[in-house]
Amino acid sequence: MATTLPVKIEFSLPEGWQPASPDEMGAPEVAFVALHPESRDGFTANITIAGKMRNDLADLVTLADESVQRLSQGTTVRVAKRHQVGTPEAPVLTQTLRLSGRLRGLPVELVQSQVYVTMQDVHDPAKRAVLEFTLTSKLSQLDAVQEDFKEFVRSIRPADPAAA
User: Fold this and answer.
1) Buried-most residue among 61, 109, 153, 157 (CB within 10 A)?
2) How many angstroms separate the CA atoms of 148 and 67, rounded?
3) CA-based torsion, 39, 130, 12, 3: positive or negative
4) Domains located in the chain, CATH noted
């Protein structure tokens, strides 16, 4: 069963992207999946959103390393780029991974762009939500979907509590 995010957010999907069921996509560990049907070429480019509460002091680099470790099980993973941005109060880490593995028995090379954002619990500073926004595509699809992912990330914001 698909997970839920530890905080409520709002975002806009760029034109051409369609929401899909995380369970039907075989991704029960994420809260949201969007597919880009036009990019279908043996693999459909996708955006996912995942998140969880953390009660430790792990920094974003540690969290990104955990993601690399998790993906390395059954797939060869190489960190192509990693950047920390944001502020000390609102840190953000971006990383680009190159994934080599098999899809339906055939070799596949994928690119994964990840954005990590943390949100401190205003009532308990020892707790924080960590959100992970991911674009996965074949290298041949990347030019067609990369700007969409940037537009998507720029649209993310905390949900308006008055709208709940």
Assistant:
1) 153
2) 23
3) positive
4) 9-163 (3.40.1000.10)
Q: At a CB cut-off of 8 Å and minimum separation 6, what does 109 contact?
A: 98, 99, 100, 138, 139
How many Cβ atoms sit within 10 Å of the Cβ of residue 21? 12
Q: Contact at 8 Å (CB) between 98 and 23?
A: no
pTM for this entry: 0.91
Q: What is the pLDDT of residues 58-94, one digit of tens each?
A: 889 999 999 999 999 888 999 999 999 888 777 899 9
Amino acid of residue 10:
E
- DSSP E strand stretches across 2-154: 9-10, 18-20, 32-35, 46-54, 76-86, 91-103, 106-120, 128-138
